[in-house]
Amino acid sequence: MGQKMKKKNKKISYRKNLKKGKRVNELIYQWEVTPQLKQRSSLMLLNYDGKVDVHDLLQSIPEASLRESNSYGQITFDNTNNALIYGDNIAVLKHFMNDPKVNGKVKLVYIDPPFSTRQIFRRGSNRTATISASDNDEIAYIDHLAGAEFLEFLRQRIILIRELLSDDGSIYVHIDSKMEHYLKVLMDEIFGREHFINDITRIKCNPKNFSRKGYGNIKDTILFYSKTNQYIWNEPHQEMTEEEINRLFPKIDKNGRRYTTTPLHAPGETKNGATGKEWNGLFPPHGRHWRISPKELTRLEKSGLIEWSSSGNPRKKIFADEVLSRGKKIQDVWELKDPQYPTYPTEKNLDLIKRIIEASSNPGDIIMDCFAGSGTTLMAAELLKRKWIGIDNSKIAISTAIKKIKEISNVSSFTLFSCNEKKRQ
Ligand SMILES: C[S@@+](CC[C@H](N)C(=O)[O-])C[C@H]1O[C@@H](n2cnc3c(N)ncnc32)[C@H](O)[C@@H]1O
Q1: Of ligand 1's atoms, which has the minimum distance to the CA of residue 394?
Q2: Confidence of residue 40 (pLDDT cuts 50, 70, 90)
Q3: Do the domain assignments include residue 397?
Q4: Residues lining ligand 1, judged by CB closer than 6 Å?
Q5: Pocket test for ligand 1, best of 337, 393, 421 (most atoms within 8 A of CB)
Q6: Which CATH number characterizes residue 219's domain?
Q7: Is 333 exposed, middle or buried (0-12, 13-18, 19+ CB in 10 A)?
Q8: Sign of the CA dihedral with 22 first, then 27, 31, and 33 last
Q9: Structural domain harbouring 316
Q10: 275-308: per-residue pLDDT in tens?
Q11: Do 15 and 89 belong to one domain?
Q12: pLDDT (mean) for 334-346
């Protein structure tokens, strides 16, 4: 076959994949066949040595089967039970792509992979702190990949995870400041920039006074992407502290109710609409418009919900008790530090993962963590009545997770599997 013909056939098979709606294939198609699209501002790709074509990727992952631990009968995850799996997550993820009970059914993935720290993480008999470990302590896992190799390791797994997600599913990826910017670009490639929702700044520890030439690092990041625009979202709210209530609602009315006021006009002029019209002998100030129609303003006035400022401006009263009953909206900086005495190195804060699970899934949904470590995600999912799948290739992680989960009272059943894979080509 001539070179031209080969190219044409390649184009056709990519087009077929495009029709199947596979975003990653679509990107590969654009990347390889029409490189001029790289110029488009909406399409930014990260290029590095060893970036594998998606088609080659799927072929190169070994076929694997799951065996219930301590037995030899081959069992597949049956969707009614939770699963803890010992093995390399890439083989397990590929295995699940062929399992209709899992493929396209996972509603939420949280992953906290190694961060390319080039450290050995150990668990001692007394302490499990990363920086205080001794060489005699058992190795929990080794975080040795760096640069492009690390990025490709994650990219391959995230491509497979995206396949397993349901259309209303989403993913949260925990990463530190050295790698987050590269990973953000890769996530944009895999999920589409339009499906980027947040990069949550997580305050992870108390301020440090290390003699480093630079600012102290007290945060890491959680990248949040959805698979489509129709993703599960249970708006999370947070209780206010007494200090916040007093600061945000400084006034007290004659009935003893705490309140504050907000302006009733906003920037921008309305040319013809009601919000540009006169109300109570007043026009909105120059360059501004009423936030609500004059009719609504009159209704507020009659209900006693408008207070006049000393400069003669109407302001809306907002009562603390009304806001408190629903709590305040959670923003994208979270101060949820990790346990001081972890059971496993780099163990994450349980409340942090509970917050993610509550916001982005519903009871009964399947939650997956394929870098499960000590099983914090699995524990959070169990406590919140979700189904869960945990994967890790460290025996210490698996045993720690089993212990953690078993300590939950009325814990639902789960099966321990090990993943048997053929050698990777
Ligand atoms: C940062 S730890 C996760 C900690 C966890 N979030 C917790 O709260 O305990 C990362 C985990 O990923 C696991 N891991 C690394 N590479 C893996 C792979 N290829 N397959 C499965 N697990 C892997 C490590 O064994 C380690 O337990």
Answers
A1: 25
A2: very low
A3: yes
A4: 88-89, 112-114, 141, 344, 346-348, 371, 373-374, 376, 391-394, 397
A5: 393
A6: 3.40.50.150
A7: exposed
A8: positive
A9: 242-324
A10: 999 998 999 988 999 999 999 999 999 999 999 9
A11: no
A12: 92
